[in-house]
LysR family transcriptional regulator
Amino acid sequence: MNWDDARFFLALARCGTLRKAAGELNVDQATVGRRITALEDSLGSKLFVRTPKAFSLSALGEALLTHVIEMENAVSAINRKAIHGDESPSGNVVITTTDTLAEAFVIPAIKMLRQQYPEITVSLLTAVNVYDISYRNADLAIRGVRPEEDTLVVKRLATIEMGLYATQDYLDRKGMPVKGTQLQGHDLLMFPRDAVPRHWANFCGESLTSPNVVMQSNSQLLLRSATLQGLGIGLLSSFLADKSPQLIRLFPESKDWVDIWLVLHPDLQRAAKVRAVIHVLEQVFEGVNRQELLP
């Protein structure tokens, strides 16, 4: 049993249900169930007794639990050494990102950070562009555009799916758009052209010539709010829009993909507090990458 398998076993043993284990691991329930089944198949024996309401450990699962907890402690010790060596991480870290990424990913990462490294505090700033990392006004930036400056350290954290959404109220008034007609006759809600110029030429697979853009905003949360109010069709991150039952996905087969980048100054790579923050950010965004691999 390797650690990647063991952590699924441990999460389900602690949580008792697929839903709670999936929340702890930042994956979906199907992934947890599939990984547990594969692990049991590889061992040739059941680790859990399944009931309609919960999962309880089998005799083999009980026997393995202590050893898996020891494995977890060893992995945690290795991670702590890898992140900050003998230095105790403490102090404030300044992160700049968008409001959407802050709400969905960065704040959950800060919650994890507070549990693991209570001596670290965070200043969270929202902006679409990199907040002058070169001059150290911020320690880390998380954004959807890869910076061109080659002196900065850049790492891809995840790839986010986006799609077109509208409300039933809007569709009742304007009609269902027809694919391939450049969304003519429809109201569009978009990022400003200078912020995301490619969307003004290709709006999630729809070529645009003279788009009827009724509202522009550099905040995706505001674009989602405008879409929910029935103001028009918005191109929204699926992880955000799919949480709103009022929003209807248009052309589900059409998808726009955005890479999410972590950016920092090279002088900060070895700072214990910064490495600790990067570690929890990678854990949170890893859940997005795992879900993208699902069939």
Remarks:
- Residues 59-84 form the longest helix (26 residues).
- The radius of gyration is 22 Å.
